[in-house]
Amino acid sequence: MSSRRSLRITAMLAVLSLTAGPTRSAAPADLTQFSIEDLMQVKVVSAAKVEQPLLDTAAAIFVITADDIRRSGATSVMDALRLAPGVEVARIDSSRWAISIRGFNGRFANKLLVLIDGRTIYNAQFSGVYWEVQDLFLPDIERIEVIRGPGGSLWGANAVNGVINILTKNAQDTQGGLATLTVGDEERVIAGVRYGGKLGDNAQYRVYGQFTERDGLITPEGRDAGDDWRIGKGGFRLDWTASAQDTITVQGDLYDANFDQNYTLPALVPPYSEQRLAPIDTSGGSLQVRWEHQYSATSRMSLQAYYQSEDRNDPLYLVDAESFDLDFQHNFTLTERQEIVWGLGYRRNRDEFTDTEFTEVRPQQETNQLFSAFVQDQVDLIPERLRMTAGLKVEHNDFTGWEWQPSLRMLWTPHQDHRLWAAVSRAIQTPSRGFLDARANLAVFPPSLLTGNLPMLVAVFGTGSLQSEELIAYEIGYRAQVAEQFSVDATIFYNDYDQVIGAVPGTPFPEVRVFPPHLVLPLELQNIGSGYNTGFEVAADWRPTQDWRLRLAYSHLYSDIETQSGEQIYDFGHQNQISLFSSWNLRDDLELDIWWRYVDKASTPTISTGRLELDSYSTVDLRLGWRPRKDLELSLVGANLFGGNHLEFVQEALAFPVEIERSIYGQVKWSF
Questions:
Q1: pLDDT computed for residue 655 by the predictor
Q2: Are 158 and 405 in contact (CB under 8 A)?
Q3: Domain residue limits at 180
């Protein structure tokens, strides 16, 4: 981390820590005291881009609330996502994560769209998300809306298998001060401070800063992996009610981080591979402005613009990237039974790469644009009984040209407490710059008679002729409040994939630009795969007593993707995930939370070792929370208490296995 960046973050944290005021933050809402009926009426926006009750949403959506995050003891958004059914969350090492929905998991899971307050954090250079820099201040999160299944008709390309929208709190809900501290053996320190105040009668703001330092994990041999990581982050949010019809939100953040990450890197001399603990430096930030105007009780417009940038120094590549996005949306009621939502969008991405020992991108600098338009028509065919929602998004990108993504959803209400829905959707995943223009050296095979006694370098080459991957998805869901204290949400799906991108071996060729002379075995990326995955997901919520809440999440997935010649690309067999979360209020000021999870055995393809089998594992997390005063919360958390060390995922390329350890940490939250 450069000294200038370190000083910038340190100064921000110091200023925020000295800020104080007389207004106290309200204690977090305890959702164990909410009825099942109240929770089923929670408003969600990600599935239809308009507010609607969770019960009436014709999509497989799950909401992780602020109180769910607090009581889980999670120290990151990534850990909190394990609460949702159908979400595959696997930790690669101390800082890297593989997160997906309904299969295709990987370091960069390119079929999952992730947003923060509607701002996409999907990486335009290599697809997927850099989860290690998403170090959000958790008390500022209002909820996380997780959509399992396509969202392309509203959110566009790359919302193939799901959408995760992280929504933060309005500034008026975070008034006063809050200081948090987490200290433990693995979570060395997570220190954050936030202060919210008023600017006149109609505007509220908050500023925050957070510093995180986590210990490294261990290798399968029991050695310290050394993959420590540190990140400092600060930001602000301003919410202004400009008039009775107009609201304006301005928010932004800066981060500066350095990670130590392990790689198994190729070498052209014996032993032909090198295990290296490499430092990664990265910094960036974003600025977002949103204006909402209420024309009438049935007509609303919003205009959102954001800019974000990233500077990353990685042993695999050096990149300076930035993007600008402009999004317009208008929803109105056409008749008493029909509501229209439509919008326009524009995005501009610019990046500049610098070659490294292992990768190169040509051209090194490029700017590309995305234009989009969408419309959604929601009609009550039979009032209070049958609703149809039809949507279409059309986009034009510089890589594959015009793309279209339609969807049709039906919601049937046979009873006031029961909903049955069905959907058919088309979604696409567009190739990224890395898929089209990059070369990456991944492994070296020793000399042999077949190679003329020359080492053979395996390298992946992007292909400029790639087309978008396609999905046709079929879903059926049932959601109900079965009894006063019991609810259930179940979904069955079948996904039909085409044009799936895979690597095809080419003809070896000699290369002498790097000593010693060697052969190159090119793996060319092409649209070679097709197939399907299918499964089902269940979420249940039960209140045996007023002070005890049980939540079950179960998902089953089977995937079979192969080439035209019958070669398997993705064939992970039957996979199961189970989560059982118990929240018990022992008394008004004392909480006990127990979280058990089971993840089925799986396999992951790697370039150097072929398919690697991962054993099943289970974990138990325990949290004891005590609130001696309304403004003070103390908690003790033990994670992975009884499961022992386990491997959750191995990165597909340049793999270095790292195991997850048991950890214990304490948390303090003080409102002032």
A1: 83
A2: no
A3: 3-671
